[in-house]
Amino acid sequence: MPDRSPAFTPRPLRTTRLDLLPLHPDHAAELAPVLADPALHTYTGGEPLRAPALRERYARWAAGSLHPRVVWANWAVRLREAGALVGTVQVTAGPGPVAEVAWVTGTAWQGRGIATEAAKTLVSEILRQGVPTVVAHVHPEHAASVAVASAAGLRPTPHWQDGERRWERTKEPAGA
Hints:
Elements: E1 13-14, E2 18-22, H1 28-34, H2 51-63, E3 71-79, E4 84-93, E5 98-105, H3 114-128, E6 133-138, H4 143-151, E7 155-161, E8 164-170
Parallel strand pairs: 5-6
Antiparallel strand pairs: 1-2, 2-3, 3-4, 4-5, 6-8, 7-8
Helix pairs in contact: 1-2, 3-4
């Protein structure tokens, strides 16, 4: 298969309870306190960012990848019933026919199936748009993220990167 970039286009997405909104730097003010718990970085490293630094990060992400064959797509996750942003999901698509997904839900909002609902929707959207392979890298001790990956239809592979297991879902060929 040629090394082609996916033709992935981000757009607003809606689930039963959630709105996935293309991430904008203006979301930083609301998301900074939601993502302020250092425990969210236990398995991923780093530390929480204050609103100005988060705004700069979101602006870089919105500007897109400097690599011409890589697409960055990020969403703020809004729980409609609360009228609040509760986390983010993201895709890095390419180079080649693969998209990597990640998710984070604020500590106060965990345990409600939000990450699962958002990740399932995101994986379906990626496959719908024709990117045939979706992956996530999950720390094996992060039980909640393991459960999200599994619920989104990804399966563990024997491949590891930086202490995280690669989970993968491949689109079924037409007529299979």
